[in-house]
Amino acid sequence: MTVPAQVQTTAPARSVQLHPLSRRIMHWINALAMFVMIGSGWRIYNFYPALPIHFGFPDYLTLGGDFTVTEAVSNEDGLANALLWHFAAMWVLVLNFLAYVIVGFVSGHFRRDFLPVSVGAFLRDFLDALRGRLDHRLGEYNAVQRVFYWGVLAAILVTILSGLSIWKPVQLQWLTALFGGYEFARVVHFFGMAAIVGFLVVHLALTALVPKTLVAMVVGRASETPHPRNGGQR
Ligand code: HEM
């Protein structure tokens, strides 16, 4: 029996390639390097706070050394080790970030998948997400994701540049001056980190809501039931 076209709302699931190997490798190298940078950065902060207010990160959330956390806090080696971790992961983060940005622009990935963005689309998708009604279509980022991806790329860039300016304030005087001097550059570096951590909270929550995106970011492919609204076209 032939089913009338208007009744055929769903097409069979198909497997689609979503992320090339290079993107997946760079995404996970970035996640690992971020984990080390943030953990060691928080320990450096505990020894040498950038903000005038009194707070510290819980020791168990910080990285830098294979001794117990309590010993580390009372031991200057805790700072030296955290700095070594921070400087080691820094190179991985910077080189990987540069590669990701170059490939993103040159391959057309950013133009195809991160654009267009508009305030109207962002507000619409943001409100839908709050109401739990945001439709996730594999292979297509919604406006909230697009804005957040551009935002985190900008935050990473500012954090890298302010980090370089406090690492080599003499050799890179012009860069330190651009950030309003050494002490202010440290504050900028801190808020850059805070923006990245804020992004990560939302990013991980969205990933948990649509776990198949995580599978796709690991294996590259996902099986998709084409969306009835557009006749199964992406
Ligand atoms: C354990 C940590 C992380 C998990 C589980 C994770 C998960 C994911 C997943 C599942 C996607 C694909 C989203 C989709 O298809 O809708 C994605 C994309 C992305 N993630 Fe993450 N992520 C993590 C860490 C990070 C970090 C630390 C950053 C940056 C600070 C980041 C930045 C991005 C960006 C920019 C994309 C878009 C990739 C592209 O299409 O080029 N992620 N992530």
Compact overview of the structure:
The chain has 234 residues and is mainly alpha-helical.
Shape: elongated
Helix and strand pattern: EHHHHHHHHHE
Number of helices: 9
How is the main sheet built?
2 strands, antiparallel
Q: What is the domain tally?
A: 1
Which stretches are low in confidence, meaning pLDDT under 50 for 5 or more residues running? 1-8, 227-234
- Give, in spatial order, the strands making up the sheet with the most strands: 1-2
Q: Averaging pLDDT over every residue, what do you get?
A: 87
Number of strands: 2
Q: Judging by the overall fold, what is the CATH architecture?
A: Up-down Bundle
Could you characterize the architecture of this molecule?
- This protein is mainly alpha-helical.
- It has one domain (12-230): Fumarate Reductase Cytochrome B subunit, CATH 1.20.950.20.
- Helices cover 62% and strands 3% of the residues.
- Strands 1-2 form a two-stranded antiparallel sheet.
- Helix 1 packs antiparallel against helix 3 (77-106).
- The model is unreliable at 1-8 and 227-234 (pLDDT under 50).
- Protoporphyrin IX containing FE is lined by residues 23, 27, 30-31, 34, 113, 141, 149, 152, 196, 199-200, 203-204, 207, 213-214, 216-217.
